[in-house]
User: Fold this.
Amino acid sequence: MPIFDSQLKAFLLDKKLISESDLATAETEAKKTKQSLADILLAKQLIPEEELRKLEAYIVGLPFVNLERETINPAVLNIIPEPIAKKNNIISYKTNGKELEVAIVNPDDIRILEFVKKKTGLKILPRLATTKGIANALSQYQKSLETEFGEIIKKESDAMSIISDTANEEAPEDLKKMAEDLPVIKIVDTLLRHAILQNASDIHVEPAEKEINVRYRIDGILRNTMVLPKQIAAGVVARIKVMANLKLDEHRLPQDGRFKVETPEYKISFRVSILPVFDGEKIVMRLLPESSKGYTLETLGFNAQGVEKLHRNIRKTTGIILATGPTGSGKTTTLYTLLDMLNKPGVNISTVEDPIEYRMPRINQTQVRPEIGLSFANGLRSLLRQDPDIIMVGEIRDNETANLAINAALTGHLVLSTLHTNSAGGAIPRLLDMNVEPFLIASTLNAVIAQRLVRTLCKEKISRTLKDFEIETVKKISILNGF
Assistant:
């Protein structure tokens, strides 16, 4: 139920919570800035937020709850996952049988209440709270994670200390036993689960001199998540190596691998990279949701003109389409989208990738393995004998791969690949630098895509903004009609 400024003004004056002069000043400011009266009152600190929320609760007929010093049972708190709670400022803080009490800030956000009701199957009892109360409750998600780590580490600290002192000298059998230690398994599983709930794209486990720093990349930004004691470093590294099927006793060379986590709620592939650093081994894990739906060119941000050009070029049976841009800009995602559009029963599509990020039905995907001699060039050479119609090369890195891709395009294949350049125009000098003849580039290059990864507005926030705009419009119409 929306609270109109006229209602709030009448109740403020009736309760004598603010002077008429201050209220008039705030009302003028609200009209000038097109903000709500409540926002102006809080911004100018003309009324304590708790008093304002209590008044709003009285107006809409909801109880008020103060969560600023409330400690919430983690089991109840986690009924609503942390990402949903943060995004919508909603907290589940008390349950009684089939009833769930939730705290909100915005009394007219019915949509999120219906969503929680549908997901939990419980009767939802909304309560109004202050933003400080909601913030205190949100911080307890992190505290519950720290508590979980703390209990595990405190319980097994002595055993873990012994492990760390001799980790680099351990035999593979001892390292495997270390990786199967229950507290180490709990720590790694908690890190992975929390990253998934946070919608993280990467997990960074970084050893320092006296500790381990854990960071998640969320919305393109690395965020500090957890600090773990140094003595568990060897166990955590060994556990992740076991999961990714890597060499346990190799501490001097980089290693790459992958593993998969499946539950009824999600199916995630983790791409693992381990790199020796001064204080140990750094681990970076890329999260690749396998259950996510395919993108379209429009949802990736291509304008109408760009979509039309790409549609025209992927209908060709020969030539090369290149996606360019810096590392992590979504080039492979764009190529997967194009492959999804081309993936018809009448064509044979083969790829050679490093790594295979997403599995696609009816597409023959080959993983590059340089350690056994299967490079991009060798893989592409073999693909040409597999009667392909369309070939996707994960990346053109060297002269041999570039020339093989050009020859494939000349001999009746449509080739898709990526190239590390900063612009579409930079693709041609890069190919020339790889000793590709200019006349061959002119004969085969169909299109070059240059892209960057940018942060976008949350659709739910946009919808809430539009809803606020509609409410404001209703207010103005009411005033115009004399209500």
